[in-house]
Request: fold
Amino acid sequence: INAEYMGESPFPRQTSRIPEESPLLSIDVDRVKVFVITSTDFRKINGIFRGLMAQFNRLGAAKERALVIGTFAVHDLFDLNKGEHNRVLNKLFGDQTPLAVKENCCRLVNMIASYFVGRNYFSLSDHFLGRLVQLVTGELADTVVRRNVLGALQKLSLRREGQTLMIQRGLIRWILRILREEMGRLSEYTLEYSTALLMNLCMRTDGKIYIESVIDEMLAVCRIYMSHSNQQVVRYINGALYTVLARERITSRALETGFDTFVASLMQKADPQLRVQLEYIASALSQDAGSMQFLPEESEIDEDRDESEEVPEEEEEYLVTEEKEDEEILAEFIASSQLTPEKQLPQEPPAPRLREPETKQYPCLLYTSPSPRDRQKSRMPSSA
Reply:
């Protein structure tokens, strides 16, 4: 993977800003990959990943973190170049992988996806994105694995290639299903990230078309969550509904089920900000010729941007507290020469180059933040 894929100057030439005592300066990413593939000691594998995350979270400045994530990407920490023959992913997310290892790897993926350079890296591999979709939809409860993979997918849904794959893999239907069937059992984290992801996918024309096949499920979810106590969730649901009302078939079905009356009842008790959003939705339902003027065309949708000057707000889902054992395991791994020449992996044919991410940037009127936990960025026309 070439560093040029990582965006505008994500890797500062000077590394002195990273604390000299940080193990992140000494970690050999290639050795980590070989150790993961060849070792049967899952306790050590788990300790290494927990140690990496704990050390990373001690870094303060955005450039320090971008440098570390960039190092993971350039050295292809998850071996994404291998595609379907990826032995690193097979080891970390296999059927025989201990749950603790799988959970911490998902935390690491979520953490990396929080950064622009990390999203560039993950977006280069359709196989990896498909693996994440498979992981999240395979979880039958609101687990650590599902929450962290869902968080990562939401951040990756800012990219067109990610949006397309998620829509094709039926992620919209899955989101609507868990929002209905697991109502009352979902964490606030899952509620916020699943509804934010739903809105991102609905902004694409393909997403709107997909919603036409699940109109009743979509309208049922909207009826449930448009009056939810979590205002972030309400805004994302409003945004998703507003975007799909650009499709005549969806609008017609909403009117058939009395959705205009439902929205009017919500407006009577809504706060001023939400009332403005509901007014846009009501206008769209009335098919007012000027009502959809704030809906972006697909070509105008924001895909992602470099926020290298900011440190994303840390999320409790991927934060770990480094235990003494993790610190010792990481230090021992760095200091030792566990991978002798005879333990190196056999040479393989060169893998095909990963797809280069699109770099075109677009303004987004409905959603402009990679994280639902960022409370300061506008997401609806009312605040545009």
In short: DSSP finds 18 helices and no strands in the chain. Residues 116 and 305 are 7 Å apart (CA to CA). Confidence is low (pLDDT under 50) at residues 1-19, 337-353, 356-370, 375-384. The longest helix spans residues 42-57.
